[in-house]
Amino acid sequence: MNCPFAASGKLGWLPFSSKIEESMKFEIEDWLPKSVILLRHYDRHKFVSDLIAGVTVGLVALPLAMAFAIASGVPPQAGLYCAMVTGFLISALGGSKTQIGGPTGAFVVVVAGIIAKHGIDGLFMCTMMAGVLLVLLGITGMGTMVKYFPRPVVVGFTNGIAILIASTQIRDFFGLKMDHVPGDFFHRMKAFAEAWSTFSMPATAVSILSIAVMIFCLKYARKIPGAILVTFGATAAVMLFHMKVETIGTRFGGIPQGLPTIVVPQFHYDIFRQLLSSAFTVAMLGAIESLMSAVVSDRMSNDKHNPNVELIGQGLANILSPMFGGLPATGAIARTATNVRSGAKTPVAGMIHALTLLAIILFAAPLVKNVPLAALASILMIVAYNMGDWEEIPEILKLSGADIAVWFLTMTLTVVTDLTFAVEVGMVLAALMFIRKVSRTTTVSPVTKDYVKDSRVHVLQGKDIPDYAIVYRIHGPFLFGATDKFADILHSLDKLPPIVILRLRNMTAIDATGLGAIRDLADTLHDSGRSLLLCGAREQPSQLMKQAEFERHVGAENICRSITEAIERAAEVYRSQYASKKAEELTPSHS
Fold first, then answer.
1. What would the pLDDT profile of 310-366 be if each residue is shown by its tens digit?
2. Which of 349, 241, 310 is nearest to 95 (CA)?
């Protein structure tokens, strides 16, 4: 894999035999699950941390799994079976240290659509087909394929999915009396308007109080999982005050106690071809969300996931999930974050989370029937808001008209048509934008004396790069599909000097995804106590950065016109921010 060139640094040489041994070791490690690698040095202290985190995230997953299942149009136990089976397998076989797998909001709309067209057998077929596709993606080394989805497309369909999830919860949130909720967005809204006079005051009160409790926990008590508090609190209130609200028991008859029955789904060749498009959508959604969640896990736990092993684990989990009556599964960002914040050290925490759900199904299933649907609807409303990437919309609105059009069209089509069609259209438009941006960077112009004179301040030859700085350069267009090139920089973060200079002289073009990658790099470097300087940007990248107000992330004074100016600026930054700190560290303290 090509990576940015470091202008300073040395290449160490190993003896030939040592190289072969090292290469063989890395080849084997590249295909081992994270659990196998980390359990080599497992101890009692790590187990205690994993136990606490696993039980905590298991309790958080309980209402979420049921809510996702109900929103998808299947009984709540389908979500629990999915979270239990896939949660264990994804942790045991995946390539992430603290990733939690299970049903997520991204699949709600797709699953509901598949069931409406092909029934529950069609869903099971589609899930297993998607699992096979994920395994193939992992085996063929396509684990980094998520990078080929441009940021406007990803934000567009996450916005659209969030709107759809929220819209499906209006009935239970307000306790509307409806026999059927239409699958089409506009017919659904019309049906809600017609049934508005039947809204339930007790259900609405439960919903509003549940929302308030979760917002309070998010803002003032982040260590307390709001979903757990709402589930147990709302259930207790309904039982204590005998509130007339719909519960899991009144609609579904409760949760079956005991292990799920293993059944191999029947394959029907006549609908196999019809499900290929849906299976591809489920696989792509699963890959995107799981790898995005794994990146979140990496940042929080200071680790680096293996994307190919992660996809293989996700695929195997999705192949087995339908045999237990489960839904499609992927990495869950919110549960993964809860897992890390609760102290998880290894994938054992994810396995314990699955075993916690198993214990609830075996020993506490009768109590689950009293959970009010209004509380679950409130939890999904918060999930929809959190997954929506709403903070990205102002950033996209500062980009080019083409980027805005791709985002808006993807979001609109996701809401009014279906996710598969929306993503296909979004990707076609993004590909056309890619071609347009690359073609516009091609120029033919004469070399003049002024051009040669102006170029001298940009060349690296003859420049003295100080020890406190390192220079990386981007060569070629930095568009979606190339943004993983920063992985090597982030992987060696602890070894970097205090100042990193990113030379953009040979970067011919950039898009929203590339700009987002530089923004994330700047945030990561700043969080580690380092500074990022940019220099030498050409016309198109410079114009887009100015349009997006990129100076907010690095400071206008740290965006330099040339490498010469950047080295001078680095000296100023070092003297003002780092030299005094270094002197203090070297000065002995007198007590």
1. 999 999 999 999 999 999 999 988 889 889 988 999 999 999 999 999 999 999 888
2. 310
Residues 388 and 501 in one domain: no
Distance CA 351, CA 87 (A): 7
pLDDT at 5 over 50: no
Both 83 and 201 in one domain: the answer is yes
Which of 456, 322, 332, 285 is closest to 61 using CA atoms? 332
- Give this prediction's pTM: 0.74
Half-sphere exposure of 531 (CA within 13 A, CB side): 23
- The 10s digit of each residue's pLDDT in 53-96 is 999 999 989 999 999 999 888 999 999 999 999 999 999 999 99
Phi-psi region of 322 (alpha: psi -120 to 50; beta: other; left: phi over 0): alpha
pLDDT above 90 covers a percentage of the chain that reads 38
380 burial class (0-12, 13-18, 19+ CB within 10 angstroms)?
Answer: buried
38: its two tokens:
């980390």
Q: Whole-angstrom Cα distance, residue 192 to residue 482?
A: 45
Q: Which two tokens stand for residue 374?
A: 């209004």
Same domain assignment for residues 202 and 341: yes
Are 253 and 379 in a shared domain? yes
Whole-angstrom Cα distance, residue 83 to residue 324? 11
φ and ψ at residue 470, rounded to 5 degrees:
-135, 145
Look at the block and give the residue holding tokens 């054992």: 348
404 close to 395: Cβ distance less than 8 angstroms: no
Residue 59 lies in a domain: yes
Q: Is 411 domain-assigned?
A: no
Alpha-carbon distance of 529 to 531, in angstroms, equals 7
Q: Are residues 475 and 389 in the same domain?
A: no
DSSP letter for 480, please: T
Cα(281)–Cα(587) distance, integer angstroms: 60
- For residue 456, being part of any structural domain is answered with yes
* Domains of the chain: total: 2
Asked if 379 and 499 sit in the same domain, the reply is: no
In a shared domain, residues 168 and 300: yes
For the chain, how many helices (H) and strands (E)?
Answer: 27, 7
* Dist. CA 356–CA 34, nearest whole Å: 21
Q: Is residue 501 part of a domain?
A: yes
Least confident of 361-365, 517-521, 576-580: 576-580
Q: For residue 228, what are the domain limits?
A: 30-393
Nearest to 239 by CA among 371, 360, 366: 371
Helix boundaries (H) for 175-222: 185-194, 201-220
Strand 330-331 and strand 531-535: pairing? Answer: unpaired
- CATH number, position 495: 3.30.750.24
Give the bridge partners for 510, in sequence order: 478
Whole-Å CA distances, 80 to 40, 127, 318, 439: 31, 16, 14, 51
Token readout for 463 is 């420049």
CA dihedral over 277, 279, 282, 283, signed as positive or negative? negative
Q: DSSP letter string over 544-556?
A: HHHHTTTHHHH-G
Same domain for 291 and 172, yes or no, is: yes
- How many other C-beta atoms are found inside a 10 Å radius of the C-beta of residue 231? 26
What are the structure tokens assigned to 521, written together? 């790099």
